From TrEMBL:
<dbReference type="Pfam" id="PF13966">
    <property type="entry name" value="zf-RVT"/>
</dbReference>
<dbReference type="InterPro" id="IPR026960">
    <property type="entry name" value="RVT-Znf"/>
</dbReference>
<protein>
    <recommendedName>
        <fullName>Reverse transcriptase zinc-binding domain-containing protein</fullName>
    </recommendedName>
</protein>
<feature type="domain" description="Reverse transcriptase zinc-binding">
    <location>
        <begin position="7"/>
        <end position="69"/>
    </location>
</feature>
Amino acid sequence: MPRLLRVWKVKAESKVQFFIWTLIQNRLWTADRLQRRGWEHQATCCACDQVLESANHIILGCPFAKEVWYLMANQFSNAAAVALQSSSVNTWWDKTFKLKQKGVLLDECTGAAYVAWNLWNERNRQIFQNQQRSAAGICSLIRDELGLLKEAWE
Ligand SMILES: [Zn+2]
């Protein structure tokens, strides 16, 4: 199955599937892409203030993202290990998709999709609402969201 179509097989809400579909085509409006178009963008990543923001950086490379993945390892150890070892969204996603399990409600692939989705949401809150949460704060948001989903799916 073509890799873009596989996104719709992930057990996740459609907004999260669509986010992953956009992410793996590098079509999110991150600062590197805004800069290439000559559009307004923030100079550096809002979480670490160190480098120009890109999709690879927000989801994988940023020290803040790494902290979130690290904290999520007690629930999704394989997904966290894959994320912590990957520097490109594409190789990360190919390996993450292989963690999908039949008959498991919250498999590691679903967990990873929601971590990435919440990292993107946090980035948007920082830019557009000037709000900042800790890595532990993001993790409790992710766990709450997944807990609700599990209830809804059961
Ligand atoms: Zn950063």
